[in-house]
Fold these 2 entries.
Entry 1:
Amino acid sequence: MGAIITAKQIFKAYSDLQVLKGVDITIEESEIISIVGASGAGKTTLLQILGTLDKPDYKDETQLLINNTAINQLSDKDLAKFRNTNIGFIFQFHQLLPEFTALENVCIPAFINKTPKAEAEKRAKEILTYLGLSERIDHKPNSMSGGEQQRVAVARALINNPKIIFADEPSGNLDSESAEQLHQLFFKLREEFKQTFVIVTHNQELAAMADRKLTMVDGKIMS
Ligand SMILES: Nc1ncnc2c1ncn2[C@@H]1O[C@H](COP(=O)(O)OP(=O)(O)OP(=O)(O)O)[C@@H](O)[C@H]1O
Ligand SMILES: [Mg+2]
């Protein structure tokens, strides 16, 4: 076991708004980290950068290593492949495609990875069943509850067996019981599959359950 994410001196500005002001963060394999902080502190911006969806403003002292890979040295094509293989995302609003069934939505990242259809569907069914959704496999998002939709989004994040899952307000849109179930699920998945979770949340209970709770204030992690 060692660090799965090493980020040093991460800066990000949007025109003249300096959002991240030198974030240092090291995350160990299989850790569950929560990130809390006021609205506008830069949590989503940081998560998007750690998740390789966005790029930091590189300075001499900036470092971003994920799963032993220097992110700034990857071509766009390699970066997309790296992301799809190593990283899963769960957002506040599930972002499932409305025209597709639960099974189809979950299979999409596997298809992007060129996994054969039969194999992708087999694995998607296993995960959906594991998440208690075996009766919902052929349902489209609008015929599922919020908690069910969010579990489909979790299944989609898991399909390629990524090492790291980033979640941005994953339970922000759920009632307290569905939120509680989702939070338990993260810990169950970590027990079983040793994944690393980085979770941005306003939910104090979830934040406190994590191995480490980091607080962002004005573009920096408070120590
Ligand atoms: N694409 C963008 N262009 C310009 N400004 C942006 C952009 N994305 C974020 N910002 C600004 O950067 C700051 C930090 O935003 P960010 O979304 O990271 O905050 P946050 O901590 O996630 O807040 P919340 O808890 O409300 O989600 C905010 O002032 C926001 O308006
Ligand atoms: Mg945010």
Entry 2:
Amino acid sequence: MLTDQELLRYSRQILLQHVDIDGQLRLKNSRALIIGLGGLGAPVALYLAAAGVGELHVADFDTVDLTNLQRQIIHDTDSVGQTKVDSALRRLTAINPEITLVAHRSALDADSLAAAVSAVDVVLDCSDNFSTREAVNAACVAAAKPLISGAAIRLEGQLSVFDPRRADSPCYYCLYGHGSDTELTCSEAGVVGPLVGLVGSLQALEALKLLAGFGEPLVGRLLLIDALTTRFRELRVKRDPGCAVCGTQHG
Ligand SMILES: [Zn+2]
């Protein structure tokens, strides 16, 4: 049940017929795992905490650096030198003390990643490198958990949702195949803050839709954002029956 305080706190989204009290209760009983508390993970964590997702699991093994603050808006100047997890927990608790926060402070290996993914209802990949994204995707396919994947670099953003519970859904590997970490990351190539904020906000929105059960998720579609011209494009993405990660699962 929702307390009077919760009814008031979340009243502006409960007002929406698509959410209502049932949807808010579903959010309260939901658990989300956020991998990475950088430029994407910052708005994801802030919005999911504010919206009342009952359990937020956050994973990051990095510390806050001064160069992060231009885009990683969950951290502030006083956070520099702290772990990103501790910095984020302080901010998330201040925003919403009603929710439960679970911290993963060390790098996740295959076993701990599988356990972390199994413990939640949805996973948000907010990391900045291919090897993490591939490992997270494999864990989500194995545990049949939906994965909301976002990326932003320079002035381009990408977003898609992979849902292994659906037979028609591709996985991250169907789309990208085996990537290479020789690709530049944001910290090497540069990125504008509002673009990662935009992609992260859309990831949070997709999570709320999946968890509360409304709308049409971005499954089988890849959203491409060109910040330079403010143009959004959408590509259809099909499941690859021969995919090395999800191919055998569905036969
Ligand atoms: Zn696949």
